[in-house]
């Protein structure tokens, strides 16, 4: 289940006219994805930039006010030559339109497949990409940057939200969650500010595309920037590593971990504060997903029609990090 708002060929025709694009010959609902309605749109003839298939996304989660940030971020990364779907702009320069009462964006369809097994060359390229994104967007954290979007899933959010899931946890897990959050506050207040940039905010394997080319397997797409925000670079790197380097039983794959840390730090070396914060950030982002998944399962299952992912996976990852990195 991924399309919450169906769209017909006639309905998309109006939108394509607004972008001065050729008509659509086919529209296909995309089955993956859990938050927005996504379609592949085949054009009758190639668009002026050569695209023959576009992606149409209708935003279902009421985040329209955040889309100018996402558009600015994708425009920047696209201009830097990073493998992201730069949103299409109409002849007036506007990317954001409305279709069926929903905010709508059109993107090029990037080639490639989501990687199931995170082979080392995939890990290296994903971490290299993330460092390049952070390097290209340090100015997004400037106070007067025109599109502010603070991290909505940071420590403040953990502190404010976690009580909602406590009734659904055993005594032991309740203590663990509360104890962890208290410790994060102590540690991060003591360490002080960390370098910031524009974050992807959710760089899981299923938000990347890879393709086999004559030159080898290449990262051809990074997608789903809707958790994009300004925040601490380490927060993004820890999300990446927790998904790419940890098995579902919570065990860390040391080779993948070393590969990703080395690839990231080749471009964005850790500051002393980041070195100290790193194991805590791995724990905090594991707890961030344990909590967000618990919220979807227990607190807000109907509110957003969202498809629940297993919170236990991230509970196990957090347990691993606590054992592995200690206090
Ligand atoms: N530009 C693109 N090029 C190729 N495929 C794309 C593109 N954008 C989206 N897709 C495909 O559509 C699927 C859903 O897109 P997306 O991840 O943005 O949706 P979502 O509902 O926000 O999902 P989730 O938050 O669960 O990852 C992706 O998994 C991918 O297969
Ligand atoms: N990547 C998220 C879902 C999309 O926000 C998760 O795995 O919980």
Automatic annotation (TrEMBL):
**What EC identifiers does the entry list?**
2.7.1.39
A biological process (GO) of this protein is: threonine biosynthetic process
Q: Which residues form the Aminoglycoside phosphotransferase domain?
A: 27-256
Supply the Gene3D superfamilies for this chain.
3.90.1200.10, Phosphorylase Kinase, domain 1
Alphabetized CDD domains for the sequence: HomoserineK_II
Pathway linked to the protein? Amino-acid biosynthesis; L-threonine biosynthesis; L-threonine from L-aspartate: step 4/5
One GO MF term attached to the UniProt entry: homoserine kinase activity
Entry keywords, A to Z: Amino-acid biosynthesis, ATP-binding, Kinase, Nucleotide-binding, Threonine biosynthesis, Transferase
Q: Does the record bear Glycoprotein in its keywords?
A: no
Q: Which reactions is this enzyme annotated as catalysing?
A: L-homoserine + ATP = O-phospho-L-homoserine + ADP + H(+)
The record's family statement is: Belongs to the pseudomonas-type ThrB family.
The entry's protein name is: Homoserine kinase
Query: Which gene is the coding source of this polypeptide chain?
Result: thrB
């Amino acid at each position: 289940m991924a399309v919450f708002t169906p769209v017909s060929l006639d309905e998309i025709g109006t939108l394509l006219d607004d972008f001065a694009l050729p008509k659509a010959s086919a529209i296909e609902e995309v089955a993956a994805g859990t938050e927005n309605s996504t379609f592949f749109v085949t054009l009758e003839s190639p668009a002026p930039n050569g695209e023959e298939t576009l992606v149409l996304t209708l935003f279902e989660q009421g985040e329209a006010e955040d889309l100018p940030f996402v558009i600015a971020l994708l425009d920047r990364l696209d201009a830097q030559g990073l493998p992201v779907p730069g949103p299409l702009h109409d002849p007036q320069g506007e990317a954001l339109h409305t279709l069926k009462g929903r905010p709508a964006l059109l993107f090029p369809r990037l080639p490639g497949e989501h990687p199931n097994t995170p082979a080392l060359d995939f890990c290296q390229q994903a971490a290299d990409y993330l460092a390049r994104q952070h390097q290209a967007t340090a100015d997004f954290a400037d106070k007067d940057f025109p599109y502010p979007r603070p991290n909505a899933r940071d420590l403040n959010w953990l502190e404010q939200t976690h009580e909602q899931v406590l009734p659904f946890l055993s005594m032991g897990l309740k203590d663990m969650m509360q104890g962890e959050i208290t410790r994060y506050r102590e540690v991060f207040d003591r360490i002080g500010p960390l370098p910031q940039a524009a974050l992807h905010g959710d760089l899981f394997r299923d938000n990347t595309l890879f393709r086999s080319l004559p030159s080898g397997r290449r990262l051809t797409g990074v997608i789903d920037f809707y958790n994009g925000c300004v925040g601490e670079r380490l927060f993004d790197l820890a999300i990446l590593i927790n998904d790419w380097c940890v098995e579902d039983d919570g065990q860390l794959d040391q080779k993948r971990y070393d590969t990703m840390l080395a690839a990231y730090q080749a471009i964005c070396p850790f500051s002393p504060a980041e070195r100290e914060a790193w194991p805590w950030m791995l724990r905090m982002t594991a707890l961030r997903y344990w909590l967000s998944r618990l919220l979807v399962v227990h607190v807000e299952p109907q509110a957003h029609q969202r498809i629940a992912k297993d919170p236990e996976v991230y509970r196990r990852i957090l347990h691993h990090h606590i054992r592995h990195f200690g206090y």
